[in-house]
Amino acid sequence: MSIDITRISDIAAQAGEMIKARREQLTSREVFHKSSETDIVTVADRESETFLREHLKAAFPDIAFYGEEGSYGDLNSYERVFIVDPIDGTTSYLHGYPFYCISIGLRENGVTTGAVVYLPYLKDIYTAIRGEGAKKNGKPIHVSAVPDFVNAIGATGFGCVRSHVKPDNVDLSAKMIRKLQGFRRSGSAAIDLCHVADGCVDLYWEFYIKPWDYEAGRLIVQEAGGKVTGFDGNPIDEKAGRVFASNGLLHNDMLREFAEYLGGK
Ligand code: LIP
Known about the structure:
Layout: H1 5-23, E1 31-33, E2 40-42, H2 43-59, E3 64-67, E4 80-88, H3 90-95, E5 101-108, E6 111-119, E7 124-129, E8 134-136, E9 139-140, E10 153-156, H4 159-162, H5 170-179, E11 182-184, H6 189-198, E12 203-206, H7 211-223, E13 227-229, E14 243-246, H8 251-262
Helix pairs in contact: 1-2, 6-7
The structure holds L-MYO-inositol-1-phosphate.
């Protein structure tokens, strides 16, 4: 029996509206640093996580919860688990830049089976159920048919720079900016993945991101007909956190760019 995606969507939308309203009251004392001065978390991220944990638990008592802002042990020890980013795009959220979202993926026995991404500012909701396709606001979506870089929009993120981890994404992005028709930065991996799924972006990559950033978006892209792998074309390695999504047609060209840039690293 497939999961009740409408119920998960309702919970995501409630949390989304809550954080949108909360932002108006957020004070500087409610913003904290994580791995570096530019890596932040707000009280709203924590409140959103608590809300999602409690409401998902009440609606789906048999499914565990694993969120960005808590300590939940080993993700791979759970049979059925919601993998949740309570605010993906926290920096944007803090500044009032409208691209932030709630991301909820459901993983069962190692396979992602359901996904919901809610963008409170735009009131867009993306959903997917494994084997049943992907939707935006209830309507089926599909990746683009753009076959080459010169006609493509690419998106990426720079979490790696914020955390001072190498190799970072700066030189690769500079190279791709010259090859692509356009380049976009939303500040949220989950949103970038949804944009690949609905075809307004043709490819997206990012270094060092976490399951809560990509779990839901990955299924939404796959169910919309796209491809999601690591930078070597293999399934994403959770530890490496290198995530690459495309409409499928651009996949091999971009894999060649990664190989050249990383040279085996
Ligand atoms: C963010 C990602 C973004 C990435 C950031 C960060 P957060 O998630 O979605 O794409 O560049 O490093 O991981 O921290 O806003 O939930």
